Amino acid sequence: MHPMPRTTLALLCAACCVPAIPALALDETRPDVTAFVAEMAAKHGFDAAELSRTLALVESRPPIIEAISRPAEKVMPWHEYRARFLTERRIRRGAEVSRAEADALGRAAALGVPAQVMLAIVGVETFYGENVGKHRVADALATLAFDYPPRSPFFRSELENYLLMAREESLDPLVPVGSYAGAMGIPQFMPSSFRNFAVDGDGDGHRNLWKSWPDVFASVANYLKKHGWRAGEPIMSPADVSAANLEGLEFGKLDLRETVGSLRARGVRLDTVLPDDAPAVLVRLIGVDGPEYRVGYRNFHAITRYNRSQLYASAVNDLAEAIAAEAMIAAGPPRTEPRPFESVSTPGP
């Protein structure tokens, strides 16, 4: 993408009455910053003077605050949301990564998470690593920790985890980049999730979520497993509610407040191998021609722990299915006859 011309940017800013505010070096002498430094020294053994020098090189960036405090846009209907992620290019690229990284996917899948689900998550998050974010993680977290009061405690905790992560992984904390909220790498882990769930999948002694596919896939699989993923169980299934009693159901909730049996008792028709006591949630998605219904199970709920959105989990489900189908098509039909010039064993004389 080409950068926007300065004149165009200036006109847009003037039109919106929002002057461009330059990034400012974080003032390491501020009481809240010095208190943070003292806490890191006392609690985790950081050298206070060295940490102060590091924070003095961090920038507080107003665009980050604008991005996170911008009023939420209207909820995107499912058919628009799905179309954003279920593109031919994203599906095709997922199948390409599936073939190129088959070994790493296979090892990670031993945790019980299918390869296509891991691919779908990183496909939705960063288009398989093509867009991991452009902000220095230290800038994003420090800006939100010290200059965004509504969520300061949360981001101060994430900044704490980030500095610990950088020390544990022998990283210069001023180098890694990520999203405006501090999510990192191909799978977009926040620092606390990195420390708790990231895995060294290639055995090199480090967890590199920017460049190591074995680490990425093992970490995504581990995250889902630790959040309730059940090997061999479905994520979702279609539901027919034409003859169902939906009174009292709250749509949009993430918790599995129903069961397969309780939904069937309401008249919801669904096809699943899961028993009647399996936890479930009825999901209503707004399609082009009106609502469509699905039932989400424990693995659906596990995906919503990654991103707390029914739309997100539904898109991951559909993208995973599309990637698996594309990979199967690309692989071709099962081979029943030898290829030309392929040796064929014959009985001996």
* Poorly predicted regions: 1-20, 334-349
User: Going across the major beta sheet, what is the strand order?
Assistant: 6-8-9-5-7
* Count of distinct strands: 9
Percent of residues in beta strands? 5-15%
Rounded mean pLDDT is: 89
Major sheet: 5 strands, antiparallel
Which structural class do you get from the secondary structure elements? alpha+beta
Q: What is the 3D shape?
A: globular
Number of helices: 15
Q: Rg to the nearest angstrom?
A: 24 Å
Q: Termini separation (Å)? A: 68 Å
Helix content: 40-55%
Q: Give, in order, the helices and strands.
A: HEHHEHHHHHEHHEHHEEHEEEHH
Structural write-up:
This protein is of the alpha+beta class. It has a domain at 236-296. The chain is 48% helix and 9% strand. It is built from 15 helices and nine strands. It has helices at 6-16, 31-44, 48-56, 62-69, 78-85, 88-100, 102-109, 115-126, 137-147, 152-168, 191-197, 213-226, 260-265, 298-306, 310-331, and strands at 24-25, 59-60, 135-136, 177-178, 236-240, 258-259, 269-270, 279-287, 290-296. Strands 6-8-9-5-7 form a five-stranded antiparallel β-sheet. Strands 1-2 form a two-stranded antiparallel ribbon. Strands 3-4 form a two-stranded antiparallel sheet. The longest helix has 22 residues, at 310-331. It is globular. It starts with 5 loop residues before the first helix and ends in an 18-residue tail after the last helix.
